[in-house]
Design brief:
Trefoil (Acidic Fibroblast Growth Factor, subunit A), 180 residues, 1 helix, signal, 3% helix, binds 2-acetamido-2-deoxy-beta-D-glucopyranose, globular
Length: 180
């Protein structure tokens, strides 16, 4: 399995190669210490990674993404999956902007000034985000949610700077674990 430290040095490389084409659909998976490629779910607008379908929520589904021409990731329910019951269409994944005090990621169809939807880039199958200096960074992490504590799910965060022990650094990739 990949070390959770890998994206830090990968991100320092100058050459970034895109993989996702506009028509290709892909899922996103979180990899980190004790987080072995958990798929990304939409849960009532929140971005959650989980070993099984999160229990708490009305609109819940694993997400199939398209990359649009504006470096955005547009999500729809993965209709192939039996876990899919959600009623949402074309929801954009966002990371909180550099000045946002709320560090949780999520989905939106109308991004606020504190929600960045158009800076997603790739290093191979690693998802990165271009920062305000034009550098490609991976600042993803997960943390167990108090309201999802029993189903093994985690909320997805971006650019958490405080040293909270419950925060696990992860990388986001477009490939599922090979043993899934
Ligand atoms: C949708 O879900 C199915 C079943 O879990 C999976 O095999 C497939 O790769 C997923 N598709 C995308 C685009 O994520
Ligand atoms: C899905 O949401 C749309 C828009 O909010 C609504 O019109 C429609 O009735 C909903 N469909 C279901 C099956 O809930
Ligand atoms: C979702 O996006 C696709 C591709 O841009 C578009 O064809 C479709 O009409 C959109 N659906 C809705 C409900 O906005
Ligand atoms: C991360 O947060 C710091 C402030 O805590 C900010 O200066 C920086 O621009 C942020 N980076 C990104 C990529 O959001
Ligand atoms: C963040 O705040 C700084 C200082 O107030 C400002 O210069 C900058 O434009 C803000 N960036 C964004 C993306 O709002
Ligand atoms: C962008 O990322 C680089 C590398 O991590 C960092 O040195 C730089 O300060 C970041 N710029 C901003 C505006 O956050
Ligand atoms: C769902 O939320 C309720 C109330 O917050 C909580 O008691 C329950 O444990 C949660 N379920 C899961 C699976 O986390």
């Amino acid at each position: 399995m990949l070390s959770y430290k890998a994206p830090l040095w990968l991100a320092s490389l100058a050459v970034v190669v895109g993989t996702a084409s506009a028509t290709q659909k892909f899922g996103l998976y979180a990899y980190g210490e004790n987080v072995g490629g958990l798929p990304l779910y939409y849960v009532d607008g929140s971005a959650v990674v989980s070993p099984k379908t999160p229990d708490n929520g009305t609109d819940v589904a694993p997400v199939a993404f398209n990359q649009n021409g504006d470096n955005g990731l547009v999500g729809n329910p993965n209709t192939t999956s039996t876990a899919s019951t959600a009623n949402f269409t074309n929801m954009s994944l966002f990371v909180p902007g550099p000045n946002s005090s709320d560090k949780e990621m999520g989905f939106t169809n109308d991004p606020s000034s504190n929600q960045v939807t158009n800076k997603f880039v790739w290093y191979g199958n690693f998802l990165l985000v271009e920062n305000d200096s034009g550098e490609y960074t991976s600042l993803f992490s997960v943390k167990k949610s108090s309201t999802h504590s029993e189903d093994g799910s985690y909320d997805l965060y971006w650019n958490v700077t405080d040293s909270d022990e419950d925060v696990i650094t992860i990388s986001m990739r477009s490939v599922a674990p090979s043993n899934a």
